[in-house]
Design brief:
The protein folds into four domains: 122 residues, Response regulator (Rossmann fold); 164 residues, Rossmann fold (3-Layer(aba) Sandwich); 73 residues, Helicase, Ruva Protein, domain 3 (Orthogonal Bundle); 55 residues. The protein contains 20 helices and 14 strands. The chain has a five-stranded parallel sheet with strand order 2-1-3-4-5, sandwiched between helices. Strand 4, helix 4 and strand 5 form a beta-alpha-beta unit. The termini are far apart. The chain is α/β, with parallel strands linked by helices.
Length: 478
Amino acid sequence: MKNVLVIDDDEKICWAFTQFLESENYNPTIANSAEEGLRRIESDKPDVVLLDVNLPGMNGLEALSEIKTHHPWVIVVIITAYDDVETTIEAMRLQAFDFVPKPIDLDVVKSVLERAFRTQSVRSTLPDESDESTEQTGHRLVGKSEQMREIYKLIGVMASNTTTVLIEGETGTGKDLVARAIHAGSERKDMPFIPVDCGALPDELLESELFGYEAGAFTGAKAQGKPGRFELANGGTIFLDEVANMTPALQVKLLRTLQTQEIERLGGTKTLNIDVRVIAASNQELTEMVKLGEFRADLYYRFKRISLHLPPLRERQEDIPLLVNHFLQLIQSELGKPIRGISEEGMNLIQNYNWPGNVRELENCLRSAATLSRSDVILPDDIPTEIHNPQEIDNSDNAQLENSLKSVLRNITKTAINDGSKQLYDDVVGLMDKVLIELALAECSDNHSKTADLLGMSRTTLLKKMKQQSKSDGDSAI
């Protein structure tokens, strides 16, 4: 018989669970407090426990900790509020198997129990093994969609160890928040969390920022030298954001550091031992970069021991109202004026927009709208124009660009025909590539990382193209 213990102080919920569990051929027992539930676990040896968080006396999370300490084989499913992010992450940190949100959907309960007993069945074929403790807590993440609930669970799992983590996702999806949440829930939470934006630092500075340098290591080096970010993160976590921008030489040095947990400062000869957990992030498809030879495969797989992919905002639109409320609370404090909310028409505009810049773009949009609003309510007129009719704007811009290109290319084609050219396509594509990169560099003030993001390519690819163009210009000059 499959034994299920329900720990809940609500008699109606207990009665409903009893009826449901018996109808599904489970053997239910009931406890109305955590203390009684712990005694029941000792005497009845249930396979699965359905545990409410809000209990009199010892609460559900405290009970979960006790259960996992003294009865690690018991599968515990937490019953909690639907959008209680902090409780969900804490429950996963304490090794809850899953959680059932309120209001309770019995179909969800059925699915969770089936999975729980499948797990128990598999366990029975394996040697006995004590469960390891996990650590995790929340950190300003917002959302109750299915995708985000899975993210919360993964954060709880990832915080339980020191394995390198790779977080992938589009720009603006919140990779830094996930990294901070993993650190904040880990045993290293009281040690440093050191973020490094690998795309914001020039190549010549990134290496010295990561590994530090000794006095006189290079022109302009401080007389006393400087510790690097790995040294500063010792005992804690270093977050390497946009790792796709690293040069091949730096990738080699980083791989060695990950393998040995040792570093050497630039210009130094002394090897320093470090204890640092590495969390890496990228908005580029590293698998594609590996195929193209733009990123080391061995470093990629070292990063990807545990991986997490953050969904774009357009794939979790049900979270938009929650994010809007969250950001408006933050923004009104910053602006020093009350913002009661957004009109229905304004919310419709926001929910119908595709958000290519994801959560970061939504926050910037709301900050702009709140600043422009002349009252305590955001109206459609306060919302940036690109949110109103994005498709029409895109079509208009594309039509104008297409007409301009046709005019220029028509003249180039005529000239090529007269000259008997046999490589018109390559010539035009090369020219377009060169001009577009030059214009993008100018708009981004020669910042290679920003230019690469604008063009939708890796920084390595951009530098390779610039080098090829420079060589081509030099050959032409000869």
